[in-house]
Amino acid sequence: MTAPDPTKTAPLVGEELRTHLAELIDVPVEDVTDDANLIKLGLGSLQIMRLITRFRRAGADLGFGDLAGIPTFASWNALVVKALEATPAEPAVG
Amino acid sequence: MRAESVYLSGIGSYVPDLVTTEQAVANGWYDEATRQASGLESVAISDTLSAPEMAVKAAEVALRRSGHAPEDFGALVHASAYHQGPDGWSPQHYILQNTLRQPITAMELRQGCQGMLTGLALAAHRLAYEPEKSAVLLTAADNYSAPLVNRWTTSRLSIFGDGAAAVTVSRERGFARLLSVGTHSAPGMEALHRGSEPIFPPAVTVGREMDFEARVRFWMEEWAAGNTPPMAHPGEVMQKALDIALKDAGITLDEITRVCHPSATLDALRDQFLDPLGLELERGIWDHTKKVGHIAAADVFIGLEYVWRSGQAGPGDKVLIFTGSPGFEAGCAIVEILSDPEGE
């Protein structure tokens, strides 16, 4: 793909990720503690797929299997940070 | 699979009357919030015609359009996802007897909603090694107006519709040329689609309902308790099938004009497939699939007939057909449209 990807989004990490997760699950952000089980909080598989697409468009190449093992904010945030470091920086558009 | 000299010479469908989702909510069949979130407008439902009878109706149309004589056909492959009729009876020979009426082999292909797409690959294989025959008849049909399934609530991903599709696959000519078929499976996911249900005795023999959501609930509870489900991302599995199909067709995704995808709720369609694959809703057939429901294995071929007959895909256009099945397996077929429909 040579054309700029119009769906490219800014990385979703840190408190922004926590807020996004709370919105997806529809719970207060305080409930999304570092180690709260996101599945137990109510996160569904379709929402996880949506999140993965969002991560990828921001340059974090993560798969379902990467996230499935430990479904917590802390675990996923660490994975996103690591994945972003592994990807050469590319200016986010839009 | 790279196809050579394999054509779709005829296509037909039978889609029964549509029941609006608004009517379904008014009847108390499911709830309004789910309806609104789904984006689905109506569903095709047959209270009377069985799946094999609908398959015959679809085949009659496809055969008429194909220009083939019954003697041209070497096999009939009927794809089904749900029960067709009496146990120990052959719906495929019923369809054969009421269409081609030839003394040829007929088989039922049970691969969930992917059976007809796989039938396309099987037909290509057969045609390569049966020089005295030039065509294979593919049918697919299901009817979910049965006591042990609730089409409105069994799955949050789609509402099951009734109907049938038929395609004649030819070595000689057609309105479309098959370029490739790609498949990829994640067999570990069989456990996901089984949930906590015993394999034996088979569910239907003990009167147990087909309830996909019960399996989802089982695995979500397991997951919340720390037991990771054997799940892969359907979009990731589909991407691998798509990569094979594109490579074998020798084209890129940009060259695909239209995409025939299964009927699902808007979220399920985007989150599972369209967004991960990088396909915009506009290249798909949402305007069609939101009106008919998920008609099992016939689904995407009813979609192909729709894009061809409506002129949304014309000569030179390459159409991607993709669907998946419990397993989990994903399949993609790429066809090139060669001619417009003739006036009928």
Automatic annotation (TrEMBL), chain A:
Domain Carrier: 11-84
A Pfam family matched in the record: PP-binding
InterPro entries per the UniProt record, alphabetical: ACP-like_sf, PP-bd_ACP
Designated name of the protein: Carrier domain-containing protein
Taxonomic lineage: Bacteria, Bacillati, Actinomycetota, Actinomycetes, Kitasatosporales
TrEMBL record, chain B:
Domain of life: Bacteria
Residue span(s) of domain Beta-ketoacyl-[acyl-carrier-protein] synthase III N-terminal: 108-184
Keywords per UniProt: Acyltransferase, Cytoplasm, Transferase
Gene3D superfamilies xref list: 3.40.47.10
Keyword Acyltransferase part of the UniProt annotation: yes
InterPro entries to which the protein is assigned, alphabetical: ACP_syn_III_C (IPR013747), ACP_syn_III_N (IPR013751), Thiolase-like (IPR016039)
Sequence ranges assigned to domain Beta-ketoacyl-[acyl-carrier-protein] synthase III C-terminal in this UniProt record: 246-337
Record-linked Pfam families: ACP_syn_III, ACP_syn_III_C
Keyword RNA-binding in record: no
Name of the molecule in the record: Ketoacyl-ACP synthase III family protein
Protein species of origin: Kitasatospora cystarginea
